[in-house]
Amino acid sequence: MRRHWKSYWHEPSFRRLILAVVLSFLIHLVFIGKVSIDLPVWDTNMQAIEAHLVLPTPKITTSAAPVKPLGRPLPKLKPVIQPQPPIPVSETMHTFPLQPVPIEEIVPMPPPEESVTGAAVESETPIEDAEVMINQDAYQYIETAFDVRTDSLAKVDSRPEGHAKITYQLLQNGEQYKLESLIQPIGLASLVVPDLLQTSEGFMSETGLQPTQYLYQFGNKKDKTYRASMDWESAKLQLNTSKGVKELPLVPGTQDLLSFMYQFMFIPPLQNMQLNITNGKKLDVYQYYFGGEETIDTRNGKLRTVRIYRDNDDGDERSELWLAVDYQYVPVKIRKTEAENKVYELLATSIKTELPPESLP
Description:
By secondary structure, the protein is mostly beta strands. It contains three helices and 18 strands. Residues 34-95 and 101-130 have low confidence and may be disordered.
């Protein structure tokens, strides 16, 4: 009679055989099948065996063809360009936005040996009889803008206390001219300091500018407003101030405070350094002296200039002009030093010689 298989489990020999088979299978998997096993805790009755199988990571293969090289080297990347500081202004002459009209070079004339601060010196040859050659190609229009400072040691790029503009124009008839100078403070100074306006009008003559009307107006102050009228036919000069009207003989060649600076366009400096000038209050003989040739710095570059200067009778005030050699000796720097070293300085920032479209007829 056949025995039921469960009856063999109660025999120790059968259980040992089953255990041996299981252990043999596990050893085969570990050493041959490369399967890692975490063996659990066995119970005392050997009731269960729990095995955790961790399969190895399969190796992935592909039938795709290997990547071939390009056959040429990769392009090299350009390095990042670091920002560079601005290029400094060249030491050479930097022209303003116009082509200078060259005129004959001047011959410097030193000041008198006895003094450079004394009163005016009488000329051996009367001004009206002096033979002069005027510039026939003088500008018909010129507009110069300035920065205004009160510190002569201030740098060119320092903030100014004001702005100024001087405009010269030969009128359409070719016989009359008009000059206007306007100085305007900016910032807080504009609250306490008024504008300074000067105008000069007149005719063109064989010796250059011949003013007929001059105005000096400092704000709305009546005691700071002066007018000068020149009647060349009757040779009379009329001065009008808050103190009244005064009439004087009109000396040939007389200029006003504004016109004399632009008279150098027609007669270069050092040919005539003794000038009769009116400021609207009086008429004086102004003796100027040669201060040397200088190259000055401006916002737009460098300018070659001739410096001339004048000291008052007391020697405590000085007026200086820097006249541009390459721009028909128009003033590009103006400085006045008063008592206690109080300074007012105008330095050119631009020069224009083309008449604005709105001014054309």
